[in-house]
UniProtKB/TrEMBL annotation:
Gene3D superfamilies: Uracil-DNA glycosylase-like domain (3.40.470.10)
Molecular functions (GO terms): uracil DNA N-glycosylase activity
UniProt signal peptide: none
Catalytic reaction(s) noted: Hydrolyzes single-stranded DNA or mismatched double-stranded DNA and polynucleotides, releasing free uracil
Keyword hit for Hydrolase: yes
Domain spans labelled Uracil-DNA glycosylase-like: 31-150
Organism annotation: Prunella fulvescens (Brown accentor)
Protein name: Uracil-DNA glycosylase
First-level EC class: hydrolase
Family listed: Belongs to the uracil-DNA glycosylase (UDG) superfamily. UNG family.
Keywords, comma-separated and alphabetical: DNA damage, DNA repair, Hydrolase
């Protein structure tokens, strides 16, 4: 469970600052499919910190918000690696999530325009527990660790029962 201290911190932050995603969307990643139907886990760092971007799924933005650069980079990689993949023209990854792709950030909230502002406040322990549960209970899971932060977080993933994909990115290519 999420610690009371973390929830108090986020509540206080919301009183003083704009915090993303909105409260009702912080746990969107839990509502897209049954946990037992998860096939792929994509780990991100923290939510997008611009207006109307974050909605509880890492790397995703709702229509009509244009895809941020990190998602454009993901689409570029997919189009180069997967024959027939075409850019969908939007950044909404809810379709992926409904098909069993868990889009999880390590940190689930962020102050507007301040990336990593809620880092080391307790979210990491919560999401580490989620990853640990997945690691223990789901076999054949594919973990996609996109970006240096996610790759560090993936150090505890069981490589015997799970497939770990952490692409090395060329210089200037960030997620």
């Amino acid at each position: 469970p999420v610690s009371p201290q973390l929830m108090a911190f986020v509540a206080e932050e919301r009183k003083r600052h704009t915090v993303y995603p909105p409260p009702e969307q912080v746990f969107t990643w839990t509502q897209m499919c049954d946990i037992w139907d998860v096939k792929v886990v994509i780990l991100g760092q923290d939510p997008y910190h611009g207006p109307k971007q974050a909605h509880g799924l890492c790397f995703s933005v709702q229509k009509p918000v244009p895809p941020p650069p990190s998602l454009e980079n993901i689409y570029k990689e997919l189009s180069e690696d997967i024959e027939g993949f075409t850019h969908p023209g939007h950044g909404d990854l809810m379709g992926w999530a409904k098909q069993g792709v868990l889009l999880l950030n390590a940190v689930l909230t962020v102050r507007a325009h301040q990336a990593t502002s809620h880092k080391e406040r307790g979210w990491e322990q919560f999401t580490d527990a989620v990853v640990s549960w997945l690691n223990k209970n789901l076999h054949g899971l594919v973990f996609m660790l996109w970006g240096a932060y996610a790759q560090r977080k993936g150090s505890s993933i069981d490589r015997v029962h799970l497939l770990l994909l952490s692409p090395s990115l060329p210089p200037g290519f960030s997620l």
